[in-house]
Design a protein that fits this description.
It is a single chain. α5 (174-179) links the parallel β9 and β10 (183-186). Helices cover 27% and strands 27% of the residues. The strands form 3 sheets. Strands 3, 5, 6, 7, 14 and 15 form a 6-stranded mixed beta sheet that branches. Strands 10-9-8-11-12-13 form a 6-stranded parallel beta sheet, sandwiched between helices. Strands 2-1-4 form a 3-stranded antiparallel beta sheet, with no helix packed on it. The protein is globular, with a radius of gyration of 19 Å. The protein is α/β, with parallel strands linked by helices.
Length: 297
């Protein structure tokens, strides 16, 4: 089978499309014929060799956590899913023709494989950081870097829960944020004052890692009211860096519920082939994403 792999840490050029042995579903796992794989910032952070405790790496390594596809092997002890089912979920080395998943759910009606691959890690992360930052209905949450996959999910989940959101993004994504229910403003010079004029901020999320932790603490009044998923230096300011996933099955169940009720939709901004994985990483690292980027197999 085809698989994207890297034998050394480095830039996008270390990614290679190689022939590899097919993985198989062990106990409590399923294998899918991958139809699409999500491209997440954690993918290129791991490829660069960044120290992420939740994702230890042995070289050579595959790439990818999220995927959608068709079940073709069911491991021992697994119930409720059969060969031929359409599922989406999280596993390992999903930039490949076949991948083993440890958490999965049936795809909601009407969702394409391409769309479904963009949800698993994104929704888990969005639910986790909202829980960790402790924002409550009626309060205001500031989201720095709000137009990407996690930001798109946070904005919609917050709206569903009665939380007001102020989102920062580039000028081209202001209308997109407003369509998702946020009060939108641009980043760049003067952004802190622009946020202040929009009202009191009770909690804040750093989703872009653009060096704004100090300002987020200033706006919320306490490092305990800020969580980052993108700035490894956040703990220097007393801010929690959230990098360890919670319950993925629970997140997938909530994603299915929200999608099925029309309360959550994350658009796919661009699709790539397996051979274009390096280009997908380059674009992901450049930021300014509106929704998700995925590989189509």
């Amino acid at each position: 089978m085809r698989k994207v792999s890297f034998a050394e840490f480095g830039g996008p050029d270390v990614l290679q499309l190689v022939d590899a042995e097919e993985p198989h579903a062990g106990p409590g796992r399923i294998r899918i014929a991958v139809r699409a794989a999500g491209v997440n910032p954690v993918d290129w952070r791991v490829r660069e060799g960044q120290v992420l405790g939740a994702h230890p790496v042995e070289l050579p390594s595959g790439v990818g956590l999220d995927a959608a596809g068709v079940v073709d092997e069911v491991g021992e002890g697994v119930t409720g899913v059969e060969v031929g089912d359409r599922v989406f979920g999280e596993g390992a080395d999903t930039y490949a023709d076949f991948a083993v998943l440890g958490a999965w759910a049936g795809m909601p009606e009407g969702l394409t494989f391409e769309e479904a691959a963009g949800y698993p890690s994104v929704v888990e992360t969005a639910l986790r950081v909202m829980r960790e930052v402790g924002v409550r209905p009626g309060q205001t949450l500031l989201v720095s870097g709000a137009s990407g996959g996690v930001g798109s999910a946070v904005l919609q989940i917050a709206r569903e829960r009665g939380v007001r959101v102020i989102g920062t993004a580039g000028a081209a994504n202001q209308e997109y944020l407003r369509d998702l229910g946020a009060v939108a403003t641009t980043y760049g010079e003067g952004w802190v004052e622009r946020v202040r004029r929009l009202g009191k901020v009770h909690a804040a999320l750093d989703l872009a890692g653009s060096g704004v932790i100090r300002e987020l603490v200033e706006l919320t009044g306490s490092p305990e009211r800020v969580v980052s998923i993108a700035d490894l230096g956040a703990p220097e300011f007393g801010v929690r860096f959230s990098g360890v996933a919670g319950s993925v099955p629970a997140a997938l169940a909530e994603a299915v519920d929200l999608i099925s009720r029309g309360k959550l939709h994350i658009p796919v901004e661009k699709s790539y082939s397996l051979a274009e994985a390096a280009s997908a990483h380059i674009d992901s690292q450049a930021g300014h994403t509106r929704g998700r980027r995925v590989l189509v197999i």
